[in-house]
Amino acid sequence: MEGKPLTELLSSFRANVESVLLGKRESVDLAIASFIAGGHVLLEDVPGTGKTTLARALSSGISGTFRRIQFTSDLLPQDIIGMHILDADRKSFVFSPGPLFANVVLADEINRSNPRAQSALLEAMSERQVTVDNRTYPLPEPFLVIATQNPYEQHGTYPLPESQLDRFNLRLRLSYPDRDFERQLIRENNLLTMRDGIPASLRPEQMRALRAEVDRVTVHDAIVDYIQRLAAATRAHPAVRLGASPRGAIGLKSTSQALALIEGRDHVTPGDVRRAAVPVLCHRVFPKGEAAGSEAAQAILEEVLSVVPSPL
Amino acid sequence: MTRRFPAREFLWWSLRAHWALALGLLALFTDAARWALLLAAGAWVAGVTMDRADMPRAALSRFGSPIVALFLAAAAADFLFGSRDLLVSLSLLVLGVQSVKFLLPKGSRDGWQLCAVALLEFLAAAAGTDALAFALFAFLFFVASAGAMGALHDQEAEEAGRPPGGYAVPARAAAGVLLAAGVGGFLASAVLFAVIPRLEFRQILERFGRARGVVGFSETITLREVTGIKSDPRVVARVEFPELRPGLLPANLYLRGAVYSRYEDGVWRHGGATPLPVQRAGFQHFVGDAAVPDSTADITLEAADYPALFTYGHPTLIEGAFAPVLSDGEGNLSLARSGHPTLRYRVRFAADLPRRPRIERRTGTEDLAFPEGYEDVRVLAQKIAGSAGTDDERAKRIVRFFVSGFRYTLSDPASSIREFLFRKRAGYCEHFAAGLSLLLRGAGIPSRVAAGYLGGEWNGIGKYLIVRQSDAHAWVEAWIDGRWVTLDATPPSGASSPFKKRMGTIGLYSDWLRQRWDKYVVNYSMRMQADAVKEGVRGIRRTGTAFRFRGWDRVAGNARGAFGWSLLAAFALYLLYRLLRKQRNSAGKGSPSGLPPLPGPYARLVRRLDRNRFRRHPGETLEEALTAAVRSCPDLSGDVDRFLGLYHRDRFGPGPLPQEAREEAFRLANRLKHAVSDPAR
Q1: How far apart are the first and last CA of chain A?
Q2: Which of A278, A233, A235 is CA-nearest to residue A259?
Q3: How far is Cα B158 from Cα B169, in angstroms, rounded to an integer?
Q4: What is d(CA A255, CA A217) in angstroms, rounded to the nearest whole number?
Q5: B71-101 pLDDT per residue, tens
Q6: Which residues from B are below 8 Å from A237, CB to CB?
Q7: What digits encode the pLDDT tens for the residues A120-162?
């Protein structure tokens, strides 16, 4: 495994994840792209479509540490990031790290917990460190958050605020599988089957090497210009209250680079940008009178994509 | 709304119409050798007939080059020994080549050559004419050209082994192309005509001394048959009066072409003085300094075979794009060479001269002498005029002599002056003028006969005077009180003459159109451009004041001002439109930057995809459009993948693509372009 080139590792990782999540090739590619680009992923859809399965598959593909936090309404910040406790032997407070101190963190049903617990994630996600009682602790590298939420169940949930949403690089919707794959699913599974037992194919240092590889993918000036025009167009759209942030544009570039790497290219094409645009920007576009990531936001993004001339 | 034009047949017929039209232009508007024209027309008919009958002509094709050589020799011989006219010889050669092309097998190459020949003919016709009719022909010609080129393009496709057949041309676009071709043709010929006179290109091409245009104004005046002239409704001149002394009516003005001072044996001739060029500055000719001008006339002379420059009253200044102007010092003004195309010039003149103390004429007195052998006339003159009173009073007495007992007739005039004065007492203007002049000379008053046109029809639409051949007139100028005074003894029966022709409203409008064409296209000059700008500015200023103080009534009255305003408004609207467009565009759109322009093969592929509606909006990439285009043919997907890889590396890759890879990408782009546009798909 040591001698294998990174691209081969990447394709085996991709094949493994796809074997778990049948018929979701596009979503898997995007999730992996965000993963190797270092962007946090938000999975969103109705229960039972494989959100947790994808999250577990992604995380178990890496041989680093993995933690899972089930978000509930009584979850407190210190349950996530950890706290100082008294060490009776040394008569001093020592830091007891919470479940956030892992390479991959799965935040399940993130919108079920209250804003206090949600915002505990804020610093961790963008700065990759946590601060407890004036002391700052760095998080392990790589550090990735995969969150899931069910947007259709409104009762007893706390929708993520704009600032929190913006920290997720990618929001994916896993819709129902199509007929053939669903038949296969029904045929092959029972209620006890767990489909996330994939072998770990990437070590944390390989993950870091991959991330460096992503950075080396060429982004032509015209592509940068295209990304900028896309982001500017979401802000100028008359039906938009709050458009895509610069962080979103950066995320779009990195995700496009990662997509190009997955395809085995050393340069980004306009097609990569267009593939990544809706998942990366949709949850950052707030239409007037609607929540981010709604159908309206998606329609606005599709309009922007069709109107802004792509470089040829 | 897309309609296919499968009509290859139709297009071929438009090709033939195009050729025939070019021949017709040549025949109507140039002096190309008629028999060569007939030959070409015959070859055209023969070619069409043979095409209809599907006759094989491959065997004939080897005669093509010898026949062309024969025509070359014939043209050279004609130029050297025959007509010695370059235009005729050249047209002989061109028409010979055309005949061969009409008769022998036609590939698309022959077709293109014929198109080129047709264009040559069109240009030759354009150089030889300036008529409005030609500009309308140009319309047809350009429309037919469009069809012809479509047909040839089709033929080329067939010869190259590509499937022939129509193109998917939206009917609206086709109509637009036709309209644009037509308007373009009209404007092109208008510009051509506006430019050519200034270059004096036409004068170079024209043969000198050729009879063209209005005939009938001559070096001499005799009492000949004039019914032909008086019934000739052709227009001689159109005159605008930008400035006219109060009290003068355009219809009462004498448009003088020549004066005849010498009378010999019943014939009036010009005086003996040699015409000399007058002083000039640029295109301003100083033709007289005896008067202070009080009126201005813009005269547009139709093409004529006579070199006379027509003027009113006592001219001081003539402005026109010609040089030199010759003057014999007696009032005869002429161009250096006889025969001219439509000519426009401005005359500043004084309608009358003030009475001056008696100044003896020093020159030309011998021309004004009383002819020998007319003693009975002299006796009559002295009897009528008497010896008492000034020259003015005596001249009036002589004019009054013609009021009673004389009648105007065109059908039964006297055959000589004597018969007119003493026996028959019936004649037309030339009798009256000659008789009056002789009687004045008999009474000792110097006089001469002047010829030209009296009055004309006033066109209220364009505010100008239409002078026709039937307005031709002769009158007398007498030297009284130190100046030439116009005297006219002819009874005013002209108005009721059966030969006076007047136009209806439609006629007036069409004549107005013609006048504008002559004014603004055929004889357009830098000076007129400057004038138009000045007028426009003045008009805007005037309407500006009218808008502020007087309301709209003056705006309506001032067509030029309204035109200026509407131009300004249109420009402002256009600017606003551009501004709005730009604002809408800048909403996140902008223009793609950071990329070199798309190389030709890629650009053509993109255009083809756009045209075939595979790329529906600007946001779509080439990749998406191409994938959509070849979705139905899996055999191409290998090519597409290979091409896209190379294309993306070329356009967005880290470094420049190696030359051979780039060439392969171009090759693939071309192949995919053809695959995409294949109508079978």
Answers
A1: 40
A2: A278
A3: 18
A4: 11
A5: 888 888 877 877 666 767 777 788 888 888 8
A6: 587-588
A7: 887 788 888 888 888 888 888 888 888 888 877 677 788 888 8
Nearest CA in chain B to A238: B587
Instruction: Give the CATH number of domain A217-312; options: 1.10.10.10, 3.40.50.300, 1.10.8.80, 3.40.50.800.
Output: 1.10.8.80
CATH number for B229-505 (one of 3.30.565.10, 2.60.40.10, 3.30.110.70, 3.10.620.30): it is 3.10.620.30
Joined together, the tokens standing for residue B543 give: 């309407």
Where does B201-293 have alpha helices with state H? 201-205, 227-230
Beta bridge partners of B82: none
Name the region of A136 (left: φ>0; alpha: ψ -120 to 50; beta: rest).
Answer: beta
* Residue spans in chain A of domains classed CATH 1.10.8.80: 217-312
Query: In this structure, is the dihedral angle defined by the CA atoms of residues A80, A81, A87 and A91, taken in order, positive or negative?
Result: negative
Structure tokens at B554: 């003056």
CB B15 within 8 A of CB B158: no
Query: Do residues A257 and A217 make contact, with C-beta atoms less than 8 angstroms apart?
Result: yes
A129 in Cβ contact with A139 (< 8 Å):
yes
Select the residue of A229, A267, A274 nearest B649 (Cβ to Cβ): A267
- Judged by a CB distance cut-off of 8 A, whether residue B587 touches chain A is yes
Which pLDDT does position B567 carry in this prediction? 82
B604 and chain A in contact, CB less than 8 A: no
The residue to which tokens 């544009």 are assigned:
A249
User: Residue A307: which residues within 8 A CB-CB, separation 6 or more?
Assistant: A233, B588, B589, B617, B618, B619
For residue B275, pLDDT beyond 70: yes
Locate the domains of chain B by residue range: 2-205, 229-505, 525-591, 600-677
Torsion of CA A75, A76, A80, A85, to 10 degrees: -130
Convert the pLDDT of each residue in B526-553 to its tens digit.
Answer: 566 566 667 777 777 766 655 554 444 4
Higher-confidence residue of A147 and B35: namely A147
| Contact between A272 and A205 (Cβ < 8 Å) | no
How far, in Å, CA of B96 to CA of B64, rounded?
11
The pLDDT-based confidence of B558 (bands split at 50, 70, 90) is low
Residues 19-38 of chain A whose Cβ lies under 8 A from any Cβ of chain B? none
Q: Which of B208, B206, B37, B210 is nearest to B130 (CA)?
A: B206
Angle at A145 between CA A140 and CA A148, to 5 degrees: 160
Rg of chain B over Cα atoms, rounded to whole angstroms, equals 35
By CA distance, what is A264's nearest residue in B?
B645
Q: Which residue of A has its CA nearest to B618?
A: A309
Tokens for B84? 């010695």
Token readout for B659 is 């030359």
Q: Give the gyration radius of chain A's Cα atoms.
A: 20
Q: State the architecture of A1-72+104-112+141-214 in CATH terms.
A: 3-Layer(aba) Sandwich (3.40)
Q: What percent of chain B has pLDDT over 90?
A: 0
Instruction: Please count the residue pairs, one from chain A and one from chain B, whose beta carbons lie less than 8 angstroms apart.
Output: 101
Helix or strand or coil: residue B303?
A: coil
Residues in chain A within 8 Å Cβ distance of B654 = 218, 266-267
Place of tokens 């025009």: A229
| Rounded Cα gap, residues B44 and B582, in angstroms | 54
Helix then strand count (H, E) for chain A reads 12, 11
Which positions ≥6 away from B334 have C-beta within 8 Å?
B275, B307, B308, B309, B325, B326, B327
Question: Which residues of A fall within a CB distance of 8 Å from B620?
Answer: 306, 310
Considering only CB atoms, which chain B residues are within 8 Å of A266? 653-654
Whether the ipTM is more than 0.85: the answer is no
Whether chain A has a CB inside 8 Å of the CB on B583: the answer is no
A159: three-class secondary structure by DSSP: coil
